Amino acid sequence: MHHGPYAWDLGMLLGHALLVKKMLDPLEAVGHAVAGYQSVRRLSEKELSFLKMVMECRICMMCLISTVVHKDPSNSYIAMMAALQPKIEVFKLLSNVDNESYLKIYGDYTNLV
Q1: How many CB atoms lie within 10 A of CB 23?
Q2: What is the distance in angstroms between the CA of the first residue and the CA of the last residue of the chain?
Q3: Which SUPFAM superfamilies does the UniProt record give (predicted)?
Q4: Model-level pTM greater than 0.85?
Q5: For residue range 15-24, what is the model confidence (pLDDT) as tens digits?
Q6: CA–CA dist 21, 2 (Å, integer)
Q7: Which of 55, 73, 77, 87 lies in the 20 to 30 Å Cα band around 16?
């Protein structure tokens, strides 16, 4: 049984989902991921309200990791996260959407499940 912070774990996943923009709009990807999670375990309104902040924290951390790659490009683990520009673009996208809009996105997709 997991006794950790569920919202934090999901927020970390969502931070990465925002960077995979091959097939979906990043916000759609987040909506689908939250809906899938909610089909198994419902998050409270308070937990949902934290997700945007957690995604922003994760993207910031990934930006910092990207800068470390320039100092030590031989580290293969962090080299796979080297591209900084896509992360900055995603962070700008996140910061331009208010928390209430995210809650609406989560709700719209969750109602489809």
Answers
A1: 7
A2: 25
A3: Protein kinase-like (PK-like)
A4: no
A5: 888 877 667 7
A6: 30
A7: 73
